[in-house]
Structures are given as C-alpha cells and as structure tokens.
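Before the break, one more example. Copy the sequence into your notebook; we will annotate it together after we see the structure.
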Amino acid sequence: MSDEVRRLVSFARVLRDEGVATDPGRVIEFCRAASLLAPEDLYWAGRLTLCSRAEDLPVYDRVFRSKFEVEPPRLRTVRVVKEVIALASEQELLREKSFAQMTDEELATVAALMRRLRLVPPKRRTRRRESARAGSPDLRRTLRRSFRTGGEPIDRAWRERRRKPRRLVLLLDVSGSMADYSRALLLFAHAALRTDARWEAFCFGTRLTRVTNALARADPDDALRRASAEVFDWSGGTRIGDAVSGLIRTRIARGAVVVICSDGLDVGEPDVLREAMARLARLAHRIVWLNPLKEDPAYEPLARGMQAALPHVDVFLSAHNLASLEAIGAAL
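Here is what the structure looks like once it is written out:
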C-alpha cells in the first residue's frame, strides 16, 4: 500500500471514528476517485463517496481541515460533482461490461484500470533463515550474545525460515474460440507481470509460446504487438494438453500458482489433457482456471477438454470482465 493510499485510508478511519458510516466499499470508491481527479479536487472526491447524510458534512469538513491542513473549498461544486459522478459511472460500467463487447477505446481504459489490480499469491518457506522472535534456536547468535554475560546464554536468539510469494504463471488461450477475449486477457497478463519480475506468461493455441519478455514493455499496445508477433498460431486451433505438457517441461510450474485462461474447447485427445493436468496438479501449488464462458449463468462445462481438466482444478472462475478478474485476488 502506497503512502498516499495509507493517508486516504487513515482519513476514512478518522471519519468512521467520528460517526460517519465509511464502510470498506465507500473507502475503495474514495481511493479510486482520488486517483482519477486532480489533487485540488480531493475534498469533493471524499465528500461524494464517503458522506451519505447531511449531518455528516460538518464532521467531514472538520476532519478534512485537520487531516490535510487545507480549508474545504466552496467553489466549482457543480463541475466537480459532475466530473466525479461521470468518472465513477464510467468505471463501474466498464467493470461489469463483457470484454467481448468492448471497443478498442474501452479496452484501453480497462488496461489502465487493470494496472491497479494487485495479485498476491500465497507465500512459501525458503531454505534461507532470518532472525525471529520465536522458532528454532539460533545457536551462533546466542553464543555471540553470551559474551556480554560472562558466557551465560541469558539472551537467547531465534530464527525461522524466510517466506516469499510463490511464482505466478499465466497460461493464455489465444485460439480462434477465444478471439473475443484474447486481447483483454493479454492486457491482464501485462498488468500482472509488472507486479513481480519472477512471474511468467505463456500463450498457446496448437503450441506453447513464452511471451514474458514481450509483455515486459511498459506501453500496453507495444507489449501486445510484440506478443502477437511472437505467437504464430494466433486464432488457430487449440491443443490444451500439449500446451500444459510443454509448460511442465519448462519446470517453471513447480510450486507455482498456475492460472489457465481458456474456454476448454480442445481439439486434442481428452486423455492427453487429463494426464497433463494430473501431472501439473502434482507439481503446482494451486491451479486456477478462468473460463469466460462462465459469464452465462446457464453455462455447464460439457466440453470434453473442460471435463478432462476440471477434476484437477482448484479454483474455477470466469474471466469475461474486469470485475471477474478482480475476484482472482481473493481466490489466490
């Protein structure tokens, strides 16, 4: 969490302590509005998202004045109100709109929103150890400290194994059946890879292609152009089993969280996919499958590929809009 966000959350907490109903949803909308507006419009971003009653306004003005040491503005109310409402409404509509129905301009806006997504995989214990308040005895440090007390180990030291986030591996289906979602999912991968340099991304149709380096570009459009140039089987057939087998051979999936984005429409043999998924389940820490077809409430995983893969999937979610991608954070 950045210092700016901490300051905004702290402001909302003070309001809550003063009796203003600032629930987590309102705080999130406040932070989003503050990130979209100019700094001088912070007062209105908070007033429109955090205050729900007329009696909240005097409290809000007082806390705002003490927290930010700025006199609450009294001008440009109508313009700022309209601007905040318009931005919030546009953002909420884009969160719920299906990627398959978005224009290029809307996808560009969603790409900016995706950069605010924070995926936090579970942590794993490493072989290295570090100082701790409890754990296993640290004999070397205990002995060193004992020199101060005449050789008596009075001040004992402890250590524990370090923990660091697991690697995230994205496996993106860019076959013809995923054409409506491929661009959006690549934008999602581009945003995700900026979180950790150890994370990896692959595309597949009939073969597996590593696109981690291509998506490392800062500009999303440039990253997508480079990725699409490297994937020679774009909008072709789908052999998910071969792609999963190729991923296993890279040894990158060992202990990682593997996120597969595919509709499960496979032209390969189901037994190949079933065996590959079983091996992947033994290697990976967790397998998350994102299927945009789950957008339809009546969807059932009847495709042969999906039926072969599901028994080895830990989390099965949709990936048809921004809101569904935001849910991945909780699943991890």
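The mean pLDDT is 85. The radius of gyration is 25 Å. Try to locate both features in your own notes.
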